[in-house]
Amino acid sequence: MKPDNAAPFPYPRFLKRRSVFRFLSKITLGLLTDLEIIGQENLPQNGPLIIVANHFHFGDTAAIVRATPWPLEFLGGFFLINAPFYLKWIPNIWGYYRVRRGAASREAMRASLAVLEQNGVLMLFPEGGSWAEVLRPARPGAAYIATRSGAPILPIGLDGIPDIFRELSKGRRAKVTIRIGKPFGPFEVDGRGRDRRDALEEIGHKIMQQIKALIPPEKHGIYADDPVLREAAREAAVYPYDNLAQTGPPTTPLKIKGTPER
To answer: Residue 76: which domain range?
Structure first.
């Protein structure tokens, strides 16, 4: 029997349409990229499971769908800021739980926990947006959901997604690598107030360290071993959406100094 709070958040959902999108992601990435998926033996048989990955491009979601076998539930922003207008309909058809960047998202948190209580698979990008192409700190949501649910976490590293359209413009296919790590966790947090916030922040760093191990060193950003790379990533580490709930979406894509053009 499913838990009582599963009623407004059933799992799985939209199986037919999601199977179509999974097929399309396989065809599209197969045609447009030189794709390599590493570590599929690390995929668990079932949930509950939280998938986390680096987020450098709006195409990252398609790569996650391609690399995993489950009917995923995604957390994502209300405003798909960096995606071209002709692709913004896809997340709506897939169906995802919307998060207000820079503000509390209680409904999305309730949905996430309900999915995991039903042994579902939840996917989220801990950085909270794709405004840069190096690692940035995790927002508190990933750690909060992990500690509240007790679900294990599966890290995935995505490399080469931002290069797809750049290479296509030159008549070439980009090399894209999806590396699937081993599940880790679960996590627990004791205490209240500042102690709890500090503990969640530390868990967020541990999550990002797991992702770091799955992507090239030059993309490690603030988690780089090289102090020069860490310093270069300092500006990109600033979360640019804190006032978004009040001001609405930007009229142009966010650009961080040192971030390659898309």
So the answer is: 15-241
